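Human: Respectfully, please carefully check these C-alpha cells:
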Amino acid sequence: MTSTKLVLASASPRRSQILKQLGLDFVVCAADIPEEILPEESTSEYVVRLSFEKALKVQESYSDAIVIGGDTIVWTGKEILGKPNDEKQALEMLLRLSGRTHRVFSGLTVALPSGKIVSNFASTEVRFRSFGREFAEAYVATGEPMDKAGAYGIQELGTALVESISGDFYTVVGLPVPLLLDLFKRCGLVYSFGPLKLQRKEKP
C-alpha cells in the first residue's frame, strides 16, 4: 500500500469541507476552463465533461497526484442555472425556483497518475418553499448566492429556502460522497479512517 498526493481541482469551499469531513489530506488547485454547454449536450453529460476537463487541466501541474474534478448545476426542467453573474441574476434565479421542484446535478472525475480516469454524476431533487421577492432580496443581500449554482447554498442560510429534498444531500452541496467513494473503488483506491486516508495498492 502506498499513499499518493490528493488534489482538488476546485476552489469551492464546500467541496473542500466535505473532503475534510472525510478526513482526507489534500491540496487545492482551481481549474480555469470554459463552461459553455455544447449543442445537444444533456445536463448529465455537461457536468461530467466539465469535471473531466477540470481534472485533466490540474493534472498538467500535478502529474504525480490523484486529482478530483467536480461541477454542479441546477436544472429547472427547461434550463441550466449555474452561478449568477450579479445580484439581479441571482434574484431572478431564486424567484424562478420559488415554490417549484428542480434537480441538482453534480459530476465527478477522479484522475490517477497512471492515466486512468473515471467519471460519473449524481442527481438530487430539491423542492423550494414558496417565497416572495422581499424574502429573496434579503437572501441575495447576504452575499451567499453569488458563487453557487442556482444562487443558493443548501448547507448554509439557503436552507431556509428548501421545503424538501429527494436524494443525496451532498450532491446538492457539490460533492456526492457515495459517488466519490465509488469512483475511488473503481480506481483501485482504498479509503480508510486512519492517518493515511487514501492509499493505492501497488501491483505485485
